Amino acid sequence: MKMRYFERRKARIEIIPMIDVMLFLLVFFVIVTLQMIPDAGVSLQLPTSSQADTLPHPKFTVNVLPDGTIKVKDQVMTPDQLTAMFQADGAPDKTDLTIATDKTTPFQDFMSVIDAARKAGVSDIGIAAQPAPGAS
After folding, report:
1. Backbone phi, then psi, for 96, in 5-degree steps?
2. Mind listing the pLDDT tens digit for each residue in 106-118?
3. SS3 content of the chain, % helix, strand, coil (to 5)
4. CATH number of the domain that residue 108 is part of
């Protein structure tokens, strides 16, 4: 069929490539947005250490506040709840735990977190510290 000079072809909108581009943009913005969300933290004055090493990101970070409050991901917990949480994790012997405590926290409160972790079977426990000024 021959087209005449004044006849117009109807334009087609290809929808599949447009959907692909929109999905790519959606995934891109979701990933960028998730990277921009800061980890909720607790304001602690960590003790300093000249021998502090950088450890891989732990599965759990337990914060012990100066008043003895234990927090995990902004949830206040007791040592018994902490033990139950580690046991519910499935493989407590493979759980990485870091304890961050203020330098003014009583040592007994710090030890109660270690006891709760040991009771659950956690053996890989790290202690958060600030590198001392001048330490490499």
Report:
1. -90, 130
2. 888 888 988 888 8
3. 35, 20, 45
4. 3.30.420.270
Tokens of 45: 């004055």
| 80 domain residue, yes or no | yes
Q: Whole-structure pTM over 0.85, yes or no?
A: no
Residue 128 Cα distances to 51, 57, 103, 124, angstroms: 12, 11, 11, 13
| pLDDT tens, position by position, 5-32 | 777 777 788 899 999 999 999 999 999 8
What total of structural domains would you count in the chain? 1
Instruction: Give, as one character, the DSSP assignment of residue 38.
Output: P
For residue 60, list its beta bridge partners: 97
DSSP alpha helix (H) spans, the chain: 15-36, 79-88, 107-120
